[in-house]
Design brief:
alpha+beta, about 40% helix, about 15% strand
Length: about 550
């Protein structure tokens, strides 16, 4: 929850964590084209400050925080909280639920809602009245045994500084801070940092300092852990100037300083319009020279919005993936290290994740340490690859070979040059992925779901397009029949049909047989192949296929 103009998200899981930064990560992950990860608090189930559940709820009724009729609402919270949060946090979340239902007449466990608290809308008299009401409520909740001294003192200071404008906002803050501090308690956090130390992510001296800081209650956010990591670095975007001609290069230089050998010259960039969302945005295509080699990278399409002056401020960046250009350099250097971005849970109430981001350099083995519980529940690192074969030279030679065997024969020289430039600026997670930069070469099967009423008609039409005239079906239709969907089309004067037994038949184990059958049934000079590491299909003639396999130009799936 932000102070005071924060945002609360009352989705099912967020009722218990109530951490604004986590909500932002869930939102961001949903927009990215990567695997969505949802962090869940796994606090042990315990009593409330030595009291039983019943005694605590009785106290809340006694002090008038809830009515006797609202008791069942709190009791139901334990059903949602089993194995996830402590009794204290569950009851605080229940208090928030009660006020949500009273104000908005909805169940936060079933309906997502976002609240924003404005800043500067109350005069002194009104704010003083609000503060008096909040102090009375805070005292009652404390008397019920729901607050530690630390949470109580912090919240009281927040009231005195007019941080809160509503009871609902303050209770959300109590829930978030209580849950966060429980999750950062020494008995939970020390095993995590011990594992990081054992694997060389935290040095001996930093580990000793961190142990003491954990035991002394100085760690209030998981983001602080990065400060103790040997090759971790945090970035405060508010400290950069507004002009992208200045801040964009400076951020890249600051990232390059994490590791030796990443210094660069000849920095330049272009801004590319981004229409991925309803609001206009932009992407940055960056070019720089490192160790005599030109490197390029295009930022993700999750947007950078222009401010009123027409500039893109660093504070307007939603996701910072600029570091990936240096992973290309590290691959060429045959370094065992790669840079990763980090998502933290739990964060701090004062964190603003459009203002901060963090990076860390790790070996493959160190990155795997973050993939296991409970480590990834505190620090989740991005999925960046360690394929040592994806060097710039390998990518350039592979693209040249693709062109040699005619995969780009349908494209003009200008189109090929543009596609090569885009491929060089892409994230090389796999060689196969780079083919997406060349129009009309592959077809992503997931695109069929964009036509929900006639997915198989759409699928066959697009498969035909990537053959560039070799396969030209007409009168394509699909209809539901008993047991599935029947696809029918006319080709070479003959009607062909195929039965799919599910709505998304391209996920079926028999789909490769369908693709193989298309080539054989229609006497095509080539066949359709599914790429192994992507959900894409490519059409290859026999000569192209044999050359591709012999020279390891693509990784094909089952044939």
């Amino acid at each position: 929850m932000r102070d005071p103009a924060g945002t609360e998200n009352f989705s099912h899981e967020a009722i218990y964590s109530m951490i604004n930064h986590l909500i932002m990560f869930i939102f961001i992950a949903a927009m990215k084209r990567y695997l969505i990860i949802l962090f869940i608090f796994c606090c042990l189930f315990s009593g409330v400050c030595g009291q039983s559940r019943k005694a605590t709820i009785d106290s809340l009724v006694k002090y008038g925080v809830i009515t006797a009729k609202q008791r069942p609402v709190l009791q139901r919270e334990f059903k949602y909280a089993v194995g996830h949060v402590s009794d204290r946090v569950a009851i605080l979340a229940g208090l928030q639920n009660i006020r949500m239902q009273k104000i908005f007449h909805l169940d936060p466990h079933k309906t997502g809602i976002m609240l924003s608290y404005g800043e500067g809308h109350f005069n002194k008299k009104s704010q003083d009245s609000i503060n008096t009401t909040l102090r009375i409520l805070l005292e009652k909740i404390k008397k019920a045994g729901l607050l530690t001294d630390r949470v109580y003192s912090y919240t009281l200071k927040g009231i005195d500084s007019s941080r809160y404008v509503a009871e609902l906002q303050m209770i959300g803050a109590l829930t978030e801070m209580s849950s966060r501090l429980e999750w950062l308690a020494p008995n939970k956090l020390l095993p995590v940092v011990q594992d990081l130390h054992k694997n060389g992510i935290i040095s001996d001296s930093s580990f000793m300092r961190l142990e003491n800081d954990i035991r002394n209650g100085k760690i209030e956010s998981a983001s602080q852990l990065n400060d103790y990591c040997e090759l971790g670095r945090a970035f405060d975007l508010s400290k950069y100037p507004e002009n992208p001609d200045v801040w964009l290069e400076q951020i890249h230089r600051d990232i390059a300083s994490i590791l030796p050998g990443l210094n660069f010259t000849n920095f330049s960039y272009t801004t590319i319009p981004d229409t991925s969302f309803s609001l206009p945005g932009a992407r940055f295509k960056v070019s720089l020279v490192c160790n005599g080699q030109i490197y390029k990278h295009t930022s993700l399409a999750f947007n950078n919005f222009k401010n009123r002056s027409g500039k893109i401020s660093p504070k307007d960046i939603f996701i910072e993936d600029f570091y990936r250009i240096f992973n290309k350099t590290l691959t060429d250097q045959h370094s065992p290290l790669r840079l990763h971005s980090i998502m933290f849970s739990p964060g701090s109430t004062t964190d603003d994740h459009f203002r901060h981001f963090a990076l860390i350099a790790l070996t493959k083995e160190q990155a795997e340490v973050f993939m296991k519980e409970p480590n990834f529940s505190y620090m989740f690192v991005s999925m960046d690859g360690y394929d040592t074969t994806l060097t710039s030279a390998k990518i350039d030679s592979t693209i040249a070979e693709w062109r040699k065997i005619g995969l780009f024969a349908h494209l003009s020289n200008a189109e090929i040059s543009k596609a090569i430039d885009n491929a060089e600026a892409d994230d090389p997670f796999s060689i196969d992925k780079l083919l997406a930069n060349f129009p009309g070469v592959i077809y992503p099967l997931d695109s069929s779901m964009m036509s929900p009423h006639y997915p198989y008609v759409n699928l066959l039409s697009h498969l035909a397009k990537i053959t560039h005239g070799a396969f030209a079906p007409t009168r394509i239709s699909q209809r539901k029949i008993k047991g599935g969907v029947k696809l029918q089309y006319l080709s070479n004067g003959k009607i062909h049909s195929h039965m799919f037994h599910t709505a998304n038949g391209w996920f079926d184990a028999g789909f490769p047989a369908f693709m193989k059958g298309l080539g054989e049934e229609n006497s095509l000079p080539g066949k359709f192949y599914q790429l192994k590491y992507t959900n894409d299909v490519i059409y290859l003639t026999k000569q192209q296929h044999d050359y591709t396999v012999t020279h390891n130009l693509l990784v094909l799936g089952m044939q």
